[in-house]
TrEMBL record:
The keyword Iron applies. Its cofactor is Fe cation. The keyword Iron applies. Keywords: Iron, Metal-binding. GO terms for molecular function: metal ion binding. Belongs to the PhyH family. It holds the Pfam family PhyH. The lineage of its organism: Eukaryota, Fungi, Dikarya, Ascomycota, Pezizomycotina. InterPro entries: Phytyl_CoA_dOase-like. This is Phytanoyl-CoA dioxygenase.
Amino acid sequence: MAPTRVSPPPDSFSVPDHLTAEQLASYNTNGYLIIPNTLSPATISSLLSETHHMLSSFSLADHPMTKFSTGETSHVGDSYFLTSSSKIHFFFEEAAFSPHTGALTKAKHLAINKIGHYLHELSPPFKKATFTPLHASIARMLGFQDPRVLQSMIICKQPEIGGAVRPHQDSTFLYTNPPSAVGFWIALEDATEENGCLSFARGSHKRAPVKSRLVRKEGGGTGFEDVEGARFPAGMEVGKDEEAEEEEVEGGEEVYELGEVKSGSLVLIHGNLLHKSEKNTSGKSRFIYTFHCIEGANEYEYDEKNWLQPPEDKGFSRLFESLS
């Protein structure tokens, strides 16, 4: 008699604990990697519950009503933004305000663009979802010596008003010399073309140098300045004709591939990779959680110019140490 096959309980879920050789090769070639099913339904439910609680409970009474913008020549630069490295702050969608009166046209929980940037330490559910064996294993496989988690965000991409994000490189906003940033982007809801999923310029991490960086201005606020240090990660093999490749990027000729993913998927994003997302034109939100790592080893410089400065009490969080 054949043995009876016992079905696993509905809430059982097997999370991968490392990248395969094929996945690592794909990441190195393309500059991004989609890994499905890295969060269990129970974990996703916990993170969404935490998100909705934060959105409904934060106060408007003392909020500066800071809007989040990713313009090419300007960016958010008020103190509410600049002090968010050790806090959980809420940033509004630009389209959530009336252009005539400046008043909110949406309920506050439907008006937030993102929540950041210290969820990985101050929110227990998000801290647990950040410091995992899988993420530590990935960091080791990518060659990190001392990966530091320096920011974390919930991006809400609200229904109908979730704004487009222009093509950009994460190392522009989290610059080390040489560049080392890697994004861990986790879908809490299905991300589709209709609600503004990511798109990637495959392989652009090897041909697109990091030319500018977001810095704190001497007179206050933030702005972009030219990168004076390394523009590619240490040891990276880049295109043979770098000048020609740069002209192609600047000419807007990059082809972007849609990255539609299911809830629970993890997307790794190289710091030099050009990627973007379009406006959410649907009636469904696109909630995601993302955190970024940089190399903390001594030969990598993270200076006082960067808009995001380490929390004074402990510095940026050590990924490996937090799991020990």
